[in-house]
Amino acid sequence: MASSHFPLPELGWDGGWAAAFTEHTEHTEHLAGRVARVDKGACTVLTEQGELRAGYGAEPPCVGDWVAVRTGPVPRVRAILPRRTAVVRGGVGRDSRSGLSGDSSRHVLAANVDVAYIVEPAAPDTDLGRIERLLALAWESGAEPVVLITKADLAADLPGLLDAVASAAVGARVHAVSALDGDGLDAVRLRPGRTAVLLGPSGAGKSTLVNALAGRPVMRTGEVRAGDGRGRHTTTHRELLLLDGGGLVIDTPGLRRIGLSDDVAEGLAQTFADVEELAAGCRFADCAHESEPGCAVLAAVESGDLPPRRLASWRRLQREAAWMAGRADARLRAEQTRKWKIIHREMRRSGRNRP
Ligand SMILES: Nc1nc2c(ncn2[C@@H]2O[C@H](COP(=O)(O)OP(=O)(O)OP(=O)(O)O)[C@@H](O)[C@H]2O)c(=O)[nH]1
Ligand SMILES: [Zn+2]
């Protein structure tokens, strides 16, 4: 089963992981490895002895996880090392009239990434709100968010576009890249052992970028549909890929809509650090920034310092996050009620049986 061998440092292994491995592994003969791909029932793990397929238990590992594998005829993941970073999205969206959707369960898209590349095309249209949504996930993940404006060769006014993007990506690096002519790629290259995840809509050019970084075609890319400029979802699964020049990337299929998880408040606060700072200057601590006197947020919109679009986006994402948190709370309450019912029943029963 073994193919090429992977020296662990090239996969991102360091002293910290070695210590975590010792702490979480009972058997010295277990093998350390990094999860490259997860399918139903089995995952692909890169190890010093090569690539292997391993089963897993009740808790499925995630792409990017470091795991301890019991080798032998039927390899199996015995431990998942605690994640340093995790990109988490909310549940898959279900339509709802309010525009809010999703369940409150969390889905880990990628684990142990150092950089989250938020990929948004320069053309046909650049969606700043989508960048902000992904930035919230990225800040919350613990990885460094970097916004990549792809297909820079197609931009009508690149400097103008980058200005607009910068105003939506406060505190994050923004780079323009063109996989077509190689422009800007050097800023995106990763040092050996560093891991990046690519997040962005279908057709944004994620796979093309991965291939350009890898220096060889590792991902299938798709022609964008002529009609609406949308992609055709050529990437169908998430996979961790080792680049030739060192560094690792996790390509993700373009997701139609990434919902926020129920635990994204900090990520949102960082994404909208400028608005939060303004809000701190409002006269009333509980200012809703609707029509209150002394509202610093509305004053900034009035003076042109804060784009109205950004305020609207902040509100929309805040509302979604609050809604998701409410659902998570409701689920937790239901769970606790259920537990108490069982405990009470047990108490009644043991009370009856008392002599
Ligand atoms: N002009 C131009 N076109 C590009 C560039 N990068 C990608 N494209 C084109 O954009 C289309 C979509 O690229 P993909 O790399 O397949 O997009 P993706 O984000 O991986 O899409 P999914 O796999 O569906 O998530 C392809 O036709 C590419 O040739 C670029 O830098 N410039
Ligand atoms: Zn206010």
UniProtKB/TrEMBL annotation:
Keyword Cell inner membrane attributed: no
Signal peptide region: none
Cofactor note: Binds 1 zinc ion per subunit.
Cellular component aspect of the GO annotation: cytoplasm
Annotated InterPro entries: G_CP_dom, P-loop_NTPase, Ribosome_biogen_GTPase_RsgA, RsgA_GTPase_dom
Keywords per UniProt: Cytoplasm, GTP-binding, Hydrolase, Metal-binding, Nucleotide-binding, Ribosome biogenesis, RNA-binding, rRNA-binding, Zinc
PROSITE patterns on file: ENGC_GTPASE, G_CP
CDD domains given in the database record: YjeQ_EngC
Localization annotation: Cytoplasm
Described function: One of several proteins that assist in the late maturation steps of the functional core of the 30S ribosomal subunit. Helps release RbfA from mature subunits. May play a role in the assembly of ribosomal proteins into the subunit. Circularly permuted GTPase that catalyzes slow GTP hydrolysis, GTPase activity is stimulated by the 30S ribosomal subunit.
Subunit structure: Monomer. Associates with 30S ribosomal subunit, binds 16S rRNA.
Protein's name in the database: Small ribosomal subunit biogenesis GTPase RsgA
Organism field: Thermomonospora cellulosilytica
